[in-house]
Amino acid sequence: MSGLVLVGAGTMGVNIAALALGHGLPVTLVDLDTAILDRAATGIRTALRHGQLMGALPADTPVATARTTTDLTSVAGAEVVIEAVTENAECKAKLLAEVAGLVSPGTPLVSNTSGIPIDELAGAVPRPEDVIGTHFMNPTYLIGTTEVVRGPRTSEPTLRAVTVLLARMGRRSVVVNDSPGFVTSRLLHPMINDAARLVQAGTATVEQVDELMRGCLGHPTGPLRTADLIGLDNLADALRVLADRTGETRYAPCELLLAKVADGHHGRKSGRGFYDYGKVLS
């Protein structure tokens, strides 16, 4: 598989790029901001080193070449396009519509989203059968399973092309049907929100919540440390999607989470979230 183009060079774009490159798949990374692309190049190198040290990337596969550009027309000729821009339905739909006008019919258009319904995004393009969703977890190069979301209009060839690509990237695909939040976010994000509410109410500290979830219920990291890894801004956006699309107010991000986002405490990527990491991590 060649001709993978990623649009969006933020945290998830960097992670997905590192995963593909580490499995020998060349990547073109597109973003409108050259400063973001410069940071992404550093982030990809860091992710590759980490993945290699953890034994999560194949040691016998040469790392492929990444090309960065601000020119969206670079998607022309792509075999698969993955958008990994901000978790905003309007922004994603607008981008997918632009990309659809630049690629050949039948090119899979993949939205990497934690919960925006895929058919909602597919309605913005002339060939909705080309649109499919993925929900890569962070850090993508360490987590071996990827949630794949098939919309009601997603075609079999689109699904097949994406699952083949994921297999080439060493990922196991679990294909689910379209729904706000799909499976992982629908279960995980409200749990994190409730954990933050317990801290907000003074029932327990951040450390106590995570310690109980790890020690008593077997959660590998604890929900609030997991939230820092996801990114608190991304988490708040995903919870708003759930609340808006389901009409259930329990999904609305709690006050403590919103306050941290407003203060710029977005988790590991900013150096501080529910925990203090001492410095901004690249």
Automatic annotation (TrEMBL):
Q: Which GO terms describe its molecular function?
A: NAD+ binding; oxidoreductase activity, acting on the CH-OH group of donors, NAD or NADP as acceptor
Q: Where is the 3-hydroxyacyl-CoA dehydrogenase NAD binding domain?
A: 6-178
* 3-hydroxyacyl-CoA dehydrogenase C-terminal domain boundaries: 181-277
Kindly give the InterPro entries that the UniProt entry links to this protein.
Answer: 3-OHacyl-CoA_DH (IPR022694), 3-OHacyl-CoA_DH_NAD-bd (IPR006176), 3HC_DH_C (IPR006108), 6-PGluconate_DH-like_C_sf (IPR008927), 6PGD_dom2 (IPR013328), NAD(P)-bd_dom_sf (IPR036291)
Q: In which pathway does it act?
A: Lipid metabolism; butanoate metabolism
Record-annotated site: Important for catalytic activity? 135
What keywords would UniProt list here? NAD, Oxidoreductase
Q: Which GO terms describe its biological process?
A: fatty acid metabolic process
Gene3D superfamilies listed in its UniProt record: N-(1-d-carboxylethyl)-l-norvaline Dehydrogenase, domain 2, NAD(P)-binding Rossmann-like Domain
Keyword Disulfide bond, does the record have it?
Answer: no
Q: Where does NAD(+) bind?
A: 8-13, 31, 87, 92, 114, 138, 269
Superkingdom to which the source organism belongs: Bacteria
The record's comment on protein family reads:
Belongs to the 3-hydroxyacyl-CoA dehydrogenase family.
Q: What is this protein called?
A: Methoxymalonate biosynthesis protein
Organism (species): Actinophytocola oryzae
